[in-house]
Fold:
Amino acid sequence: MNKKSFKKILPVLLLSLLLTSCAQYRHTQRYELDFFQRAQTRIKGDVEVSVAVLSAEESAELFGVFVAETGVQPVWIRIRNNDPMPYSLYSIGLDPRYFSPHEAAWKNHFTFAGFSNVQMDSNFRRHGIYPYVPSGETVSGFIYTRLNEGVKAVSIDLKSPGGEGKSFFFMTPIPGFRGDSTDLFDHTGLYPKDGIAHIETLDELRSWIEALPSCVFGKDCTSLADPLNLIMIGHSEDIGPAFVHRGWELAESAHFRAVWKMIKSSLFGSNYRYSPMSALFMYGRKQDVALQKARNTIDERNHLRLWYAPARFKEMPILVGQISRDIGVRLTGKLFPPTTHVIDPEVDEARWYLEQDLTLSQRVRRVGLAQGVGRAPEKKPKHNLMGDPYYTDGFRLVVIFTNEPTSFSQIDYLDWEIPEDIRYLILENR
Structure:
């Protein structure tokens, strides 16, 4: 290298050394944080699983960098295996696009800080959980997941050699988020014990479903809103993972900050995964659960609302609700802010989407259709609370969940109703 070339690269080398000397990697130890105090624990047989999700501040303190700003959220897991057989932790069940320890560290590397980055790599890897859990042992550590706000659904799937494995489901709160339903699928205390109907046979269940109102209601609990076209039956630890595995997310409550984010997202065409939903009513209260799948813009999403019913089928809770597809936004004088989503008038398509989606979750035991909403062809549509037209074959989707992994081919289909060719909605009365 000649002197002229050396003079050209000397400033770059000096700047690199300066930046390297400034980028000191400092972090705390795990035992110095108190997130263990809020860890949730579930026990199945001789296996105990505990889970906690770090806040952005805790992540920054433990890992020495602003982890949340790079879209990474560490989830702490502890597995105590007193079972005679070993288990393997399937991290993909928690997040199908989780980050490896080195990948999460790389996203947070300093510029021109070789040794500090090596230390960071080591720290991220040391805190990662080892996926093999021998009999009689306890393992703990982090899985580096994609960032969620407020409430994170955590599904822990453990597989045993030649066995059926075990699954654990958690809804873990994260500071700073106000959800529409902060404790997903919590129905304790909604009804007195003597006010719950106990249904034992499929014939009784069908009659009960068909006797439900045609729609959910507006705030006055009398004005008809969207069609009541969903029946979900199962325990929270079975229903929850089905929705989580298929990418459904909670809606944020409609407080000022959330509404402002919604307005900005609509104006600039950006995504808002937790966009609030307006309140609809059933059993005298707004929805117990609000879930959605957002597209790339806030104007488009699949969304559903669910209410716990005062009834059980074979001691399993029953949720009733509605699903529709938002396809745009328009002005309205009925709400503040004065905007509302426009629903796809073919509401059966959203119902069909959900049926397909949930059957792929491997948590569905039975699925079928029941009468209830009432037929409405395209030429004579019904209208929801906001005045949007919709047409339907009049059926309700019925899904019964299970805690046993069930493949698509193992699902039983209720033979109550057979869906008609969707073309009748267009051709009838034309």
Summary: The chain has nine helices and 24 strands. Confidence is low (pLDDT under 50) at residues 12-21, 423-427. Residues 24-173 form a domain with the Immunoglobulin-like fold (CATH 2.60.40).
